[in-house]
Amino acid sequence: MLEATLQALRAKGRHLLVPYLMAGLDPDWLSYVDLVIERGADAVEIGIPFSDPSMDGPVIQRAGEMALARGVTPLSVLAELGSRSFPVPLIVMTYYNIFHHMGEERAVRQLRSAGVQGVIIPDLPLEEGGRWRDLATKEQLDTVQLFSPATPDERIDEILAVAQGFVYGVGLMGVTGERAELAATATTMATRMRPRTSLPVLIGIGISSGDQAAAVIRAGADGVVVGSALLRRVLDNQSPQQIALFIDELRGALDTTEP
C-alpha cells in the first residue's frame, strides 16, 4: 500500500516529501502530523520513542526522552494513530526490541490496526528479519530498508531483493541531525541507488533546507526524509506558522527542481 501510493505519485512527476515527527512529544502532537500533511507531505514518518535510540542524534533523542517522560508507550502511540484517519500513508520508525517485546505477530497486527502502512527498523539485520518481513508482507505492511554510504554494491543488491515501500538512503555516516552543508555522500547515495531499483529512492539524515532537498533530487533521488530540522523547530516552540513556512520551503524546492 505504501509502495503503491508513492509509485503513483512518482509516476505523476511528483518529488516526495516525508517529514519525521516524534510521537507523544506533547499532548497535541497529532496537530503537527495534520500540519505537515496540509502543507504537502506525501507520507509521514512517526517515531515511537525508545530508551536506547542508536541511530538518533541529539534533537530526536531529546524529543524521545520528552515523550517517554510523559509516559508514552508503543501501544498508546498506536491507539492514538488508530483513533484517526489520515489522507497520506503513515510509516512507523522504531527499534526492534519494541516489536520483539510485543511479539512480532501482535506488533504487525497492532501496526495495521492503527492504519500504519510502512515500518522502518534500523537495527534489524537483513539475515534476522525474514520472519518479520513474511508476517508484515501478509498484512500489507511494507518494511523499508536502509542503505548507508558504506554499504557495498553487492550488499545493496541483497537488500534490494527484499526492499519494500521505498529505498531509504542514509545521506551520511553518523547519527541523525541537521547539517549546514549537504554531505557529498548524500548525492552519491542517490546516484548509486537510482539505477539499481524501480522503487522510489529517498534520501534522509542531514537534509535541513530546501536547497539541500533540491540537490539530492538533481542527483537522481525521488524525494527526501526530513526529521531533525523539523523537530528542532518544534522543540524550539516555533509557531505553527513558522513550521508551515519550513515545510513550504521544502515542498517548493521539490516542486521546482528538475532531476
Protein described:
- The alpha subunit is responsible for the aldol cleavage of indoleglycerol phosphate to indole and glyceraldehyde 3-phosphate.
- The protein has 259 residues and is an alpha/beta fold.
- The protein has a single domain (2-256), classed as Aldolase class I (TIM Barrel, Alpha-Beta Barrel).
- It is 46% helix and 15% strand.
- It has helices at residues 2-11, 30-38, 58-69, 74-82, 96-102, 104-113, 130-138, 153-160, 184-193, 210-218, 228-235, 240-256, and strands spanning 16-22, 44-47, 90-93, 116-120, 142-147, 167-170, 201-204, 223-226.
- The chain has an eight-stranded parallel beta barrel with strand order 1-2-3-4-5-6-7-8, surrounded by ten helices.
- Helix 8 (153-160) links the parallel strand 5 and strand 6.
- Helix 10 packs parallel to helix 12 (240-256).
- The two termini are 26 Å apart.
- Mean pLDDT is 91; it is low at 172-181.
State the order of secondary-structure elements, H for helix, E for strand. Answer: HEHEHHEHHEHEHEHEHEHH
For the residues shown, what is the average pLDDT? 91
Biggest sheet architecture = 8 strands, parallel, barrel
Count of alpha/pi helices: 12
Strand numbers in spatial order across the main sheet? 1-2-3-4-5-6-7-8
CATH superfamily: Aldolase class I
Helix content: 40-55%
Oligomer: single chain
How many extended strands? 8
Query: Radius of gyration, Cα only, in angstroms?
Result: 17 Å
Low-confidence region ranges = 172-181
What is the number of independent domains?
A: 1
By CATH, the architecture is named Alpha-Beta Barrel
Name of the CATH class: Alpha Beta
